[in-house]
Write the structure tokens for this entry.
Amino acid sequence: MSGAAPRRPVRMCVRCDRITDSPVLVSVVHQNSGPGWSVYACPGCAPCLPPVPDVFELWERGPGEE
């Protein structure tokens, strides 16, 4: 199957709930046990979502510090 085109990923947008074949990774959800998951948006909705904070920066700041 070397001549076949690779399949593009298909994901649902977290904002508009539409299926997109051009997903943009907008967040990663971490778990204490078990695998986490990725959150995707379509290219049109991705700029509307807030940037994901760096979890290590939040850890260094401590609770209640912004």
